[in-house]
Hints:
Elements: H1 17-20, E1 34-35, E2 38-39, E3 45-46, E4 52-56, H2 65-73, E5 76-80, H3 85-94, E6 100-104, E7 110-113, H4 115-119, H5 143-157, E8 162-170, E9 174-186, E10 192-201, H6 203-225, E11 229-237, E12 243-251, H7 253-259, H8 269-272, H9 278-288, E13 294-300, E14 305-314, E15 319-326, H10 328-365, H11 369-392, E16 398-399, H12 400-408, E17 419-422, E18 427-428, H13 430-449, E19 459-469, E20 472-482, H14 495-507, E21 511-517, E22 520-528
Parallel strand pairs: 17-19
Antiparallel strand pairs: 1-2, 3-4, 4-5, 6-7, 6-10, 8-9, 9-10, 11-12, 11-15, 13-14, 14-15, 16-18, 19-20, 20-22, 21-22
Helix pairs in contact: 10-11, 11-12, 11-13, 12-13, 13-14
Domain PAC: 161-214
EC number: 2.7.13.3
Organism: Marinicauda algicola
Amino acid sequence: MPDAAGPFPRLAPAGSPRADRSCPRPKRPEGRAGTPGRPGDRPLSRDRQGLGYRRVRVRFPWQDKEETRRAMTQELDAPSPAADPDSDALAGTLDHILAFVATLAPTGEMTAVNQPALDIAGLTRADVIGKPFWECFWWAFDEDVQRRVRADVKRAASGGTVRRDALVRVSGDQMMNVDYQLVARRDGEGRIVELVASGVDITERKAGERRLAASEARLRTIFDSIDQGYCLCEIVTDEGGAPVDYRFLEVNPLFEQMTGLKNAKGRTAFELLPDLERKWLDDYARVGLGGETIRFQQGSQAMGRFFDVFATPVEPHGCFALVFKDITAQKEHETQRALLVRELNHRVKNSLATIQAMANHTLRHAEDLESFSAAFTGRLQAMAAAHDIIFNAGEGRADLHGLIEAQLGPHAPVETSRLDIAGPSVQLPAPVAHGLALVLHELVTNASKYGALSNDTGVIRLSWETGAHDERRALRLTWREEKGPRVEPPRRQGFGTRLISATLEHSLGGKSEIIYDPRGLQAEILLPL
Length: 529
């Protein structure tokens, strides 16, 4: 092995037999410049430090033939102190760039470093040259960091490439973020001869990333807390660029609650809802591909909901953002209000007819004008009380028996036997009381016009009971008319029948069945309480 003085074979010590043998100085070949043993016509090579050298063969006369043969075939590096202008220029350049640059031995010891890397940490080359990279000041503030850098060196020495964001220590025990790289440099034969470490200050970039993350977190908090649904989407097109679907990229927590769509992020609309109406895609394609901003209200049978939607395009092309609200309840309220307006008009007409029928009925049974006035006035007051229950039941609960009396009172015949009312005491929630009052009003009005109360012999039997239905407490009410005119099924469904169905089934979640028995109309009503 070469000794510390250089790569040449070790010479025999003085006084040894070999040392006493003569060793004639080789003669310089004529016509050639150079030094003995270093032919001048060999080209000058450079080592990795930039120093010049030539390769020579050395033959020692005291060696035996085998030693001579080995010595003649052994090539030794003979460094030359010749300067390399290119190498000096590169070193000077590296000392003036705002970056960390260093070279390491494959085992990790520092062999060179540029001046900025030393200045920023307040170091000298003597502090780092020959020292393991991971033990240098920049990393020696945390054992976990040092272990990771040591692993980086091992990886690079095996031919791998390391690049990551790292934290290094600088002067004053301050910390700096750097884009840190470690790669291997190979010689002409592909052998790894050294490692090159570099780093660029990215402290400002990291600060910008933190500011951006904080801004995004604030926006996320806003979108997560608003009382509206939000989603970011992209249009999906076919090979020809035509829109075929749209994908949900981001959604806020209210998105699922307002749409009923679960795990929507990353999935497309038609994947989640194959029956979704095409109009949604057409509208959103105008936004994502056409660049329009639109506001609209639209219902979806596939989702069973109605939405108020604001849609606007965002970058990149094809993407759009939605802010929307489920207004299904509002639309149902508007529909119910329109129905009530129609009912009011219908009730006014019915009230006038009822008053006329009540006046005629009272007049037929009154003995004199005074008794007629008393009976007629009482029935008008009962009718007014029924209106109060219908429109004011929302303030509390209503007694079912009182509700029935208020509705049937204005139509009650003189003969009490013609009304058979039986059932337990039941307190109705306000919505149920309101809806049932409308239903009873329709039934009794119909009976006064065409049924059991339209003659002098008809009877109405009304009974009810409570019990369990679909694991809920429910009211079952039966309306039966007898001895009235013969009942014929209607040619078409009238408004009153539609009102009963809409009120019981859609508004109250109940059920109803109207039976047109020739002997008298029957109605079966089931209401959850």
